[in-house]
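Hi team,

Below is the intake form for Thiamine-monophosphate kinase from Paraburkholderia dinghuensis. Please confirm the fields before the structure is written into the shared record.

FORM ID: S-0412
PROTEIN: Thiamine-monophosphate kinase
ORGANISM: Paraburkholderia dinghuensis
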Amino acid sequence: MLSEFSLIDRFFASRARANTRRAALGIGDDCALIAPPVGEMLAISTDMLVEGRHFLPDVDPNALGHKTLAVNLSDLAAMGAAPLGFTLAFSLPKPREDWLAAFSAGLFELADRFGCELIGGDTTAGPLNLCVTVFGSVPQDAALRRDAAQPGDDIWVSGTPGDARAGLGVLRGEWQTHVADAAVFRRALERPEPRIALGLALRGVARAALDVSDGLAGDLLHILERSNVGARIDVDALPRSAALARLPLAVQRQCSLAGGDDYELCFTATPGARDAVEAAAQHAGVPVTRIGTITSLDPADPARAKPGIAWHDGTGAPLNLTLQGFDHFHAD
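The structure came back. Fields below:
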């Protein structure tokens, strides 16, 4: 039977030591030693994935390894930061070798692709719970922040938000779809693609940015609140995959506006930067779509007195939509 330390060494530490390039000191000591390139700042983010809350018990462990790191790399992408390394802490009910082999393979496949080294962590027995802290670097004046949006900015989104939530709906039996579409949705849910290349390409082009992890309606509001502005969104402009477009319109809107787990980027940029945004997207190989405008607040107008989103359809007609993002303490 695997012990704690043989588990760590066999499935994680030995692989990490073989690929250490950026950390001055990686796994094997009380602390790792890591420093950003000269003139850059460390970007640090932590995310936790809990069985039954963030993933289903029967999820493919290879896909889970991928997603465990992908959700953290997505945070770096939203800041325009380049990956450096990460730590992994987890509790595991039983040290099953087949599960660990598949999980670590999915984890390291993504880590190697982005040059992000495992530099430390911890493990213990308990309910399945995965926690990653990721480290990246970004030039001091180039970080994409949530508090930088300005009235008149365009609002953009990458990819096709909503597919992941559609996948969860299929798994839950909330709606039915074709087998091929279900496979598209499930891949979006279980294997999100962190938009690192796009985040790096948007340095000096975008103003404010974040990743859409808890639904566009909730996440965009974070930019609005931090920047003290409002937003006007054209719901019909939101990009939808061919698979999502085959679901009923109400389901499409629910998934693309209030669904979570997409890990696409939502960002703002001046209208004068439209060509630069398109060039950045083309360079990164990621489609982007302009979906709205940042608006100023007006204390004299109750509808615009505080940060919020005005939803409209493609004709400009207002839509009375009650939407909110995923809440970990109030989720169904």
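SUMMARY LINE: The first strand starts at residue 40 and ends at 50.

Thanks, M.
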